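F.,

This is the one I mentioned.
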């Protein structure tokens, strides 16, 4: 069944003006245009509109959504499953915060005593845990979100990485990065400067400056990694951890990776506001 712009607007809550804008920018084209000049939408377009609304709800900008939906490897079912997982995490956190509010109300009314530590349930992040309980591993090494973009209105996000690798050589277009060493010794190459840092030392990396880093001699360590503004780093790390095309260490060492894997990796970086510039420290692609 075909629907007019007005009908789609009524059922979706998206204004007619917005639907026209989506068409003009190529984000959502109608199935066809009638002889009367009216735009008509079929089920495939409605499903795309649903995806747009999901991504908007999760804080993505229209330009970012267009890039995601336009990817050759985009799959609606996988996207829906991902949306469900994110919303479940948010729902769990919301329920925890509501529980904390209810306990605080009872405490203030004098109907039920509240323990001091209960006042912060839903806010604190335990050792070895991530902000919303969803564990993300990069190459099998944990990268726990400690402060989320949702906590700061997108101003910043913080991760605790435990492992030996710092990822490939890259740069951020709109973010500054600050890395504080908790454990171990790390080697950095920032622009053309190479140096080593240890516990208690930190490295500031301005936006648009290429950089790569890793543990000295491959020994694991631990760092705090801060991004300002937060950008799309949380989604990036989650996407990397789930991406089926990621080259394994064995593939990199033996150079048995496929060209398509590297092309998709380049696209993943680009979709999240970064440029992939080279291999991880110690490797050559």
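My design for it:
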């Amino acid at each position: 069944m075909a629907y007019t712009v007005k009908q789609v607007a009524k059922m979706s809550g998206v204004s007619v003006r917005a639907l026209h804008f989506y068409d003009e920018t190529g984000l959502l084209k109608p199935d066809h245009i009638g002889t009367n000049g009216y735009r008509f939408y079929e089920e495939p377009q409605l499903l795309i509109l649903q995806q747009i609304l999901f991504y908007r709800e999760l804080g993505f900008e229209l330009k970012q959504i267009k890039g995601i939906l336009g990817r050759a490897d985009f799959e609606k079912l996988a996207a829906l499953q991902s949306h469900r997982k994110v919303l479940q995490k948010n729902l769990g956190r919301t329920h925890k915060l509501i529980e904390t509010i209810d306990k605080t109300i009872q405490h203030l009314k004098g109907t039920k005593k509240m323990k001091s530590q209960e006042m912060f349930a839903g806010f604190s992040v335990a050792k070895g845990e991530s902000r919303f309980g969803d564990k993300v591993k990069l190459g099998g090494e944990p990268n726990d979100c400690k402060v989320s973009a949702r906590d700061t209105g997108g101003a910043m996000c913080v991760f605790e990485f435990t492992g030996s690798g710092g990822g490939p050589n890259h740069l951020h277009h709109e973010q500054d990065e600050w890395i504080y060493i908790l454990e171990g010794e790390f080697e950095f190459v920032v622009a053309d400067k190479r140096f080593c840092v240890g516990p208690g030392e930190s490295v500031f990396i301005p936006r648009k400056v290429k950089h790569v880093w890793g543990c000295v001699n491959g020994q694991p360590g631990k760092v705090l990694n801060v991004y300002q503004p937060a950008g799309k780093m949380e989604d990036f790390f989650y996407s990397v951890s789930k991406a089926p095309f990621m080259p394994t260490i064995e593939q990199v060492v033996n150079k048995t990776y496929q060209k398509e894997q590297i092309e998709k990796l380049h696209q993943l970086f680009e979709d999240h506001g970064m440029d992939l510039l080279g291999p991880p420290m110690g490797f050559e692609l």
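The longest helix spans residues 76-109.

Talk soon.
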